[in-house]
Task: structure prediction
Amino acid sequence: MVSIGKTDIGQKRSMNQDSIFCSDTPVGPLPNLYIVADGMGGHAAGDFASRYAIEVTVDFIKKSTLENPVSVLKRAMIFASNEVYKAAQKDSAKSGMGTTMVAAVIDGNTLYAANIGDSRLYIINDEIKQITMDHSLVEELIRNGQLDRKKGRNHPEKNIITRAMGSRDEAMPDFFEVEIKKDDRILLCSDGLTNMVEDDELRDIVGDNDELEKAACELINRANYYGGNDNISAIVISQ
Result:
């Protein structure tokens, strides 16, 4: 596997509350590991939440004796969510903090993905396919037939998350297992990218750039060109 990860503060924020992790080599029992987390909370709390959630998740995986990728990710992410919650209880400045997380493991031709919140994973080839499903109020309205997906992009309550790491209730990730092809590229990203750049444009940027570095940089640049309203993170992976 080959990957490149980029994160950027954007044009409107005073702090980058996104965090990323990329490893093309084994992490504990996993052959590789890729994570994007988008923190939520006060001025510094969101930054801490995303970084801490990734640190705890990665450390848990390194020590894991399990072999099944879904089991490893599940236990690691639930444990990390609880640790973020406990950290918030110990420090009033971090009260209410939380973070989204999308994680991926690629084993041969199989992609294992997990997510909590609205950070996403896409498979990109001649087309683009969103694998994860957002845990957001707008996505629930869309799935229930109460809102058109195109109108959802600019909905005033688009940023309301219905599931996040660090919540009082146990945050259960959703899991996806997908077969991938040799020429497929994988994109993990925060909503600072997807809220600014349409899916078709994401496909064109990732598909038209042979070099992953150029693709990742162009994704960040395009989101900033359209306003950069939030922090922007992207991990691009190829086999």
About this structure: The longest helix spans residues 69-90.
